[in-house]
Prior knowledge:
Residues 91-148 form a coiled coil. By secondary structure, this protein is of the alpha+beta class.
Amino acid sequence: MFKRSIITSVLALIAIVVVFTQYETYTHNPWTRDGQVRAYVIEVTPRVTGQVTHIAISDNSRVEKGDLLFEIDSRMYKANVSKTVAAEKQARALVAKAKNEEQRSIRLEKRTPGSVPVLTLNNLANAVETAQANLEAATALVEEAKLNLQYTKVYAPTDGFITNFNLREGSHVIANSPVVALIDEDSFWIEGFFKETDLQGVDPGDEALVTLLMHDEVVIEGEIKSIGYGISKSDGSTGNALLPNVNPNFQWIRLAQRIPIKIKLDNVPEGVQLRVGTTASVKIIKE
């Protein structure tokens, strides 16, 4: 009986030590399984409207900065370039005509003072300025038309991955309406959501260890880049009939809110591909 009591006491002591050790470890190294892979998603938007005539990419493919994504029917924009170039030539000819008339009147006035009224000379000078302004406007229209022609070819703005791509040849795209999602390859980070009670002593620059759910055998080292300064309020938001939404809770339970922490990964091992939205576990090593 005495021996059994000793064994029970030893096992209880071991359990207490283990629990205390785990608690100390968790206190000094907060850990969460509520983490996600994040990255900047660029919404590739055509600058002009038209029908898609050629697609150079496929869904879930990698592209490099400057790669052609797709082309828009350029015939109308080529015609517009020709039209604006012709208008520019016409404006330039009107400038030359206005200058010739002004110079002829000035020479005549010099030979025979008083032969040309001052008002006429002023009107001729104004005509030259107007013609020059019209020429500048025509030149600007030419530049705009050439830019629109260039915009019929849409290129990748950065290295990254095309995802959820549904555009097809023959589709009609509208200017300033996004049509392609491009995940920036160099912008991946981990966002971990920690209880507010775990953040005491946690600072930017602290080391973090990340394990991805789809690669749970690999531990990736990272560094805390920033800690969120606020989260959205749930209670008190407007609901039906403009009344506040208030969630029921127990008076003796105070639930800790979760604060987002952004973690930059140092070196992602070869063979590990980060994918936006996948699950990650994060452990913080306090300095």
